[in-house]
Design goal:
mainly alpha, 13 helices, globular
Length: about 325
Amino acid sequence: MLKNRVHIGVLMVCSAAAMWGFDGVVLTPRLYNLDVAWVVFMLHALPFAGMQVLLFSEYKALRTLTASDLLFFFLVALFGGAIGTLAIVRALFLVQFKHLTVVALLQKLQPIFAILLARILLGERLGRQFLFWTAIALTGGYFLTFETHLPATVNSGHMLPAAGYALLAAFSFGSATVFGKRVLNKVHFRTALFFRYGFTTLIMLFIVAASGKFDQLAVTTPTNWLFFAIIGLTTGSGAILLYYVGLRYIQANLATMCELCFPISTVVFDYLINGNLLSPIQWISAAVMLVAIYRLTQNRAAEVDTCADGGQWCEA
């Protein structure tokens, strides 16, 4: 019975990761004709509207949430929902269907930022080999992005800002992971999902209103609405929910392995849909980067397990 639960968890996390790869290559880039802020707003507003029917009862959690809890929900939404999604969508739009695999792979650097922020904000100790594997991962990420060319010359100069936005997304998603530890220890994952989308919708509503982007409604085509719906039901809230449910059945180190389905699926879909394929240097660089990230997360898990065995978290 336990073995079957593990298999179910692996299947769910792998499926969610593959869906994110499909989204980055096939779905989100098809919204290229729209403003980035409007895209991010709709990607959260539409699923949140649907949640009013399915998860309306989650509002009762407001009675038990403290001001500190609401602050952390806001921070998760600000970094993981608003800033992170704005950055990665902007990066995908900048490369114009080229180098989509590179942009997606750079997101895998987010554990570096999550570990650093956990050290700064939560006082968690850095792994003994953190600096070494971080240097290896960043070196691999550089050659994955620019190969042996000058950064300003790749993709007519668009690759450099796209890489910057991808790194900003990695930082933001890593930050959301750290802030999310606070809320997920107290509430059910459905509650966390509901309020994450709710707060992100409010933040993006303010950004869209302040920037005067509601005129995008008039230029949103039927095809755009179709992709909004598909993303909302599948690779958006659907994939996040699938991922959280899968995590209930497997350990963190196994989840890390399953998440490799994201870069793998990105490579596969980018080749099948767009005919893009990494160069030999990029293949080697991607492998080096992913191995370094895996070692970072494994070392981190080992540090946490060692500390937890003593009945408390390691102190700085």
